[in-house]
């Protein structure tokens, strides 16, 4: 019996003045066991030495773009447009894959289960000591009604077949904090794209994300989440959005 052909995967990393962390992200992509990975790095115009670090790996980075952008989601959209892989994943410049097999596991799952989006689990780690786990985000398979109960996939683990972006669009730049939530809501809840969950940790994410830096940002992010439902013609009670931050409480249990 012949070996199953796994899809080609493009990984996009966006960065702006990420000199302290970008090398870890780069190394975690370049160390992947999957044989066909296209690595795309999109820089937003760094001035802190980030470009010098990226230059060290220029021979192993498939595509590189450096120019001013309108924020992280604009950079992600640029990377998606550059992607030629059958599947696209996005790894932030301060994140890393949890193992060298992460992309291969995703590619194999998507092929064997014949799905178009896939995600797994994520751990939040200390910003300085990335071996120290602060929170665990254990996800699950999608089921109707889960988004209304505060559930969402961890976006850094979210892989998408490129045709889905072509068909349903990329990140909506009208959402400055929660464009990732809006995109996943659009793909999974609205269009019911075939999906699968990988029950293992795929990504290590440093604590301190933009949407959680202050109470004000938390409120703004959840208002954007409510607006995402309206933008997609989906109905939800505004009070339901309160379940989203409350659902994260279990991430701290046992930590």
What is the fold's blueprint, element by element?
Elements: E1 9-15, H1 22-30, E2 37-43, H2 50-56, E3 63-66, H3 72-82, E4 87-90, E5 95-97, H4 102-113, E6 117-125, E7 133-137, E8 159-161, H5 162-168, H6 179-190, E9 195-206, H7 215-231, H8 243-246
Parallel strand pairs: 1-2, 1-4, 2-3, 6-9
Antiparallel strand pairs: 4-8, 5-9, 6-7, 6-8
Helix pairs in contact: 6-7
What does this structure look like?
It is a single chain. This protein has 255 residues and is an alpha/beta fold. The chain has one domain (9-252): Spore Coat Polysaccharide Biosynthesis Protein SpsA, Chain A. Helix content is 31%, strand content 21%. It contains 8 helices and 9 strands. It has helices spanning 22-30, 50-56, 72-82, 102-113, 162-168, 179-190, 215-231, 243-246; strands spanning 9-15, 37-43, 63-66, 87-90, 95-97, 117-125, 133-137, 159-161, 195-206. Strands 1, 2, 3, 4, 5, 6, 7, 8 and 9 form a 9-stranded mixed β-sheet that branches. 41% of the residues are buried.
Percent in helix: 25-40%
What order do the SSEs take from the amino end to the carboxyl end, as H and E?
Answer: EHEHEHEEHEEEHHEHH
Please report the number of helical segments.
Answer: 8
Strand content: 15-25%
CATH fold naming:
Spore Coat Polysaccharide Biosynthesis Protein SpsA, Chain A
CATH superfamily: Spore Coat Polysaccharide Biosynthesis Protein SpsA, Chain A
What's the CATH architecture? Alpha-Beta Complex
Spatial separation of the terminal alpha carbons: 45 Å
Uncertain regions spanning at least 5 consecutive residues:
none
């Amino acid at each position: 019996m012949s070996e199953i052909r796994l899809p080609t995967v493009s990984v996009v990393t966006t960065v702006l003045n990420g000199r302290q962390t970008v090398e870890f992200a780069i190394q975690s992509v370049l160390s992947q066991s999957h044989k066909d990975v296209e690595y795309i790095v999109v820089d937003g115009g760094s001035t802190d030495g980030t470009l010098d670090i990226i230059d060290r790996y220029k021979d192993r980075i498939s595509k590189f773009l450096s120019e001013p952008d309108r924020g992280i989601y604009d950079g992600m959209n640029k990377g998606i447009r550059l992607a030629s892989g059958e599947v696209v994943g996005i790894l932030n410049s301060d994140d890393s894959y949890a193992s060298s097999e992460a992309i291969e596991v995703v590619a194999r799952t998507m092929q064997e289960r014949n799905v178009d989006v896939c995600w797994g689990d994520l751990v939040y780690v200390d910003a300085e000591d990335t071996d120290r786990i602060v929170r665990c985000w254990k996800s699950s398979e999608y089921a109707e009604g889960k988004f209304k109960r505060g559930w969402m996939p961890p976006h850094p683990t979210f892989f998408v077949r490129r045709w889905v972006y072509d068909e349903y669009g990329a990140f909506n730049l009208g959402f400055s904090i929660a464009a990732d939530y809006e995109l996943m809501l659009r793909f999974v809840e609205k269009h019911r794209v075939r999906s699968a969950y990988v029950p293992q940790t795929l990504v290590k994410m440093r604590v301190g994300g933009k949407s959680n830096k202050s109470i004000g940002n938390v409120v703004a992010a959840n208002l954007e989440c409510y607006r995402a439902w309206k933008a997609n013609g989906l109905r939800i009670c505004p009070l339901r959005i309160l379940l989203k931050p409350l659902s994260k409480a279990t991430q701290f249990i046992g930590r």
